Amino acid sequence: MFQVNSQIWTNEQGENFISHYQDKLSKEEIIKQIANIKCSFPSLPPEFYLLFSERIRDNKFTDKRLRDSVAHVIDTCVYPNPTIAQFLSFDKREKLYTRNEMLKIVNDGGVWNHYEKVEIKNETFWIKKNATQIITEKQNETKKKEQSQQYKPETKEEGKHLTVDEAYKQGYITKWFYDLITDEGAKQLAKHNNKFKSIKDIVSK
Description:
- The longest helix has 22 residues, at 129-150.
- This protein is of the alpha+beta class.
- It is built from 10 helices and 6 strands.
- α1 packs parallel to α3 (63-76) and α2 (46-58) packs across α9 (184-190).
- The chain folds into 2 domains: 2-20 and 93-150, no CATH class; 27-91 and 153-204, no CATH class.
């Protein structure tokens, strides 16, 4: 039986889905994608990025889903500025079938062997066989990344509160991003309501 440790999404019709994205969300990717959004939509207010960071975490985004979502919105947004909902709505999902749904598929002429049994958090479903291959590849990619990071020495100095200059010197942000966020609007983002002392604080909250 194919096993997946992932979140199940249920729509208003009661249909169940699982996302193709099986990796995790990192602070580094959030910073990188905020930079991409700011570069593409420079008139967005600082408050947008604070709420954006919170909502992608609450909606269980991963690095790859965030990256694909931002690229999709940049490519397709027809208005001056996008909404957070446009980013959140992006996902690649595969339908999960219950036993009763499988029986209906077979009664309608479908072939049972074209689906594979899958267990997700102690619940049993069936999924199209080509979908299991996609999800397995995503899981293997995530495992390889995690294993490589286990042996990666920590060279960056940890600090709870960093200035933008310190974050750049310690390698938390690239020179391109450093140049991008040293304007007045970015400073407001980093120090919004005096709650954050650096861009690192925003993604660490």
